[in-house]
Design a protein that fits this description.
The chain has 212 residues and is mainly beta. It has one helix and 17 strands. It is elongated and about 75 Å long.
């Protein structure tokens, strides 16, 4: 039978406590928290890669680690477009057509980027009969048409616009277009003359239609 002296018996709890502290410092038996996965690749996909001015499409970005496995809840992607005059994109990945052309849409996550090419096609209406919107500009701001012809106003880019004719008090002006985004509207000009219009939501955004 092992007999401990009084001094030895007092040291036993201290040794036990020290062993527990060392065990905790090593992370215990579960190995600690797994390190976060490193983003190795980003992809961008969409149901369609061809849209019209004023039309929008939702894109989706996905992240993968260096083993090729998808990363769930990777965080927020930073979205951008190579051409703001062709297509815009918001920070949810919703891309909107502005004018005919091709734009490269990029999703960036921690410096790793994925891209997708989006083509914007003109509709059946020819370009000379269509006025598009940039964030605060009509494109083109001035058009000349023949009496009885129509103009399509395409509000793209996910930003609300309007086209107000009535504030200029010109007889024969078409009806105003209210506040809308990502939609197109047709206005027919049956009277000869000059018909200015303005987007009252954006300072200085003025255009004019000449009817001959």
């Amino acid at each position: 039978m092992l007999t401990l002296t009084r001094q030895q018996r007092m040291r036993v709890p201290s040794l036990a406590a020290a062993s527990l502290l060392a065990f905790a410092a090593c992370g215990g038996s579960d190995g600690g928290t797994a390190p976060p996965k490193v983003v190795s690749r980003v992809t961008v996909t969409g149901a369609t890669t061809t849209i019209f001015p004023g039309e929008a499409a939702q894109l989706t970005a996905s992240a993968f680690d260096n083993t090729g496995a998808p990363i769930s809840n990777p965080g927020s992607f930073a979205w951008s477009t190579s051409s703001t005059t062709v297509a815009s994109v918001d920070q949810t990945g919703r891309v909107s057509g502005i004018a005919a052309g091709t734009a490269i849409i990029t999703a960036d996550l921690s410096g790793v980027k994925g891209t997708l090419s989006v083509k914007v096609n003109l509709s059946a209406v020819t370009a000379k009969d269509t006025i598009f919107t940039l964030p605060a500009q009509w494109v083109p701001p001035f058009l000349t048409i023949n009496q009885g012809e129509s103009i399509v106003f395409t509000f793209g880019g996910g930003i609300a616009h309007n086209a107000i004719f009535s504030k200029f008090n010109v007889a024969g002006s078409p009806p105003d277009i209210g506040n809308f985004s990502n939609q197109s509207f047709t206005r027919t000009f049956n009277t000869r003359g000059k018909f200015p219009f303005e987007c009252t939501l954006h300072n200085g955004m003025v255009g004019e239609i000449t009817v001959q």
